[in-house]
Amino acid sequence: MTYKISELANLGWNAFFLSQLDTTDLNSFIPVKVIEVHRNNLRVVGISLDRTIPPFRSGDGEESSVATVGDWLLLDAKTLKPNRLLLRNSLFKRRASGTGRKLQLIAANVDTLFIVSSCNQDFNIPRLERYLVIASEANVTPIIILTKSDLSEDPENFAHAARKLQPGLLVETVNSHDPNTLEPLTPWCAKGQTVALLGSSGVGKSTLVNSLMKSSKIATQAIREDDDKGRHTTTSRKLYFTPQGGLLLDTPGMRELQLTDVATGLDEVFSDIRELAEQCRFKNCEHNTEPDCAVLSAVDKGELDANRLKRWRKLLAEEAYNSESLAERHERERAFGKMVKNAKKQKQRKDF
Ligand SMILES: Nc1nc2c(ncn2[C@@H]2O[C@H](COP(=O)(O)OP(=O)(O)OP(=O)(O)O)[C@@H](O)[C@H]2O)c(=O)[nH]1
Ligand SMILES: [Mg+2]
Ligand SMILES: [Zn+2]
After folding, report:
1. Cα–Cα distance between 330 and 324 in angstroms, integer?
2. What 3-state class would DSSP assign to 37?
3. Structure pTM?
4. Which residues share a beta bridge with 269?
5. What is the per-residue burial (b if ≥16 Cβ within 10 Å, else e) of 94-108?
6. Is there an atom of ligand 1 within 6 Å of 155 CB?
7. Do 5-89 and 265-326 come out as alike in CATH topology?
């Protein structure tokens, strides 16, 4: 089959993906991009090709080797069956809460993350920090988009609080019903660029995608009046094409973003604490009661917000727990079980 590989550039194809194919691959396979993820199937598009395929997992057994939205797959040119998942240049993932703690892939090959929140009760600093951590870990540029500026008396207050989260962080306040306020976002939606929109239900992700596409094709729904919460209107992850040739990924509102495998992202987003920690007297200082602790002294001097320190500790513990492999978890639980058993035995002995 012959096709013009340069045409794939509109879908975000670039040298990074091309370098993963040799000449035989180019003759035997067709690259396609996953543009929609539904419960039981994926929609993939390529040159003159648009079809639905069953979920695909590559054979290496890795937890993250399941095709997700934004991924590039190679289809067999003859049978059109998926054969290979190409390496990603970025990946967002989270750990499901609950006992299974399954890994959930959110999106792959994203260039820019719009972290969407609104200027109302949804605005939440700890949540924004979580999104910043996954962006940082994936090496994706984050932009905080504060929607519904038209409904707030002082949207700048929200923007000011968000800007304090990271030096140089980009924060935009918008009214998605007024295209003029969206002008600063257009450079991120240029040809071949992929932007993912993440945020809670009802913050206006789909409204923003509609406005940036100058369309109204995605369904949106008013939020609840009493608590500003959304109604989970969007139920699948889907890429849309903007008039300038960019790709926008609309996603369902997230109830929870449990972090996993984000040690680097945490270090980067909380670099202020990490830099302070380098000045503690002890290398392994835990910033609790140790003498000459630069972190605690910064809190005392009012240079570091005690709440930020608390949030960092919480995320660090969560990340360690969620990133532990299944084998490590079983080993830890086994050791704990043994300890409890021994303690009980000793107690019984004492009781005699
Ligand atoms: N006034 C105003 N209303 C907005 C703005 N952005 C979104 N809305 C409204 O907020 C409501 C929720 O918007 P959606 O776009 O459905 O929210 P969503 O984030 O896609 O929600 P889910 O699909 O449930 O995750 C709709 O009634 C929108 O019209 C805005 O900037 N200003
Ligand atoms: Mg939506
Ligand atoms: Zn310390």
Report:
1. 10
2. strand
3. 0.91
4. none
5. bbeeeeebebbbbbb
6. no
7. no
Distance separating alpha carbons of residues 162 and 159, to the nearest angstrom = 5
> Does residue 27 line the site of ligand 1, with CB under 6 A?
no
As a whole number of angstroms, the distance between CA 10 and CA 192 comes to: 5
* CATH fold for domain 92-250: Rossmann fold (3.40.50)
- Spacing, Cα 234 to ligand 2 middle (Å): 4
CA-252 nearest atom, ligand 1 = 25
| Residue ID of nearest Cα to ligand 1 atom 27 | 222
Per-residue pLDDT of the chain (352 residues; tens, 9 = 90+): 445 666 788 899 999 999 999 999 989 999 999 999 998 999 999 998 999 999 999 888 888 999 999 999 999 999 999 999 999 999 999 998 776 778 999 999 999 999 999 999 899 999 999 999 999 999 999 999 999 999 999 999 999 999 999 989 999 999 999 999 999 999 999 999 999 999 999 999 999 999 999 988 999 999 988 888 999 999 999 999 998 889 999 999 998 899 999 999 999 999 999 999 999 999 999 999 999 999 999 999 999 999 999 999 999 999 998 887 666 767 777 777 777 777 777 766 665 5
253 lines ligand 1 (CB under 6 A): yes
Provide the residue ranges of all domains of the chain, joining segments of one domain with +.
5-89, 92-250, 265-326
**Residue 229 near ligand 1, beta carbon < 6 Å:** no
Which CATH fold would you assign to the domain 265-326? Ribonucleotide Reductase Protein R1; domain 1 (1.10.40)
Pocket test for ligand 1, best of 173, 205, 218, 220 (most atoms within 8 A of CB): 220
User: Which CATH number is 5-89 given?
Assistant: 2.30.30.140
Tell me which ligand sits closest to the C-alpha of residue 275. Answer: 3
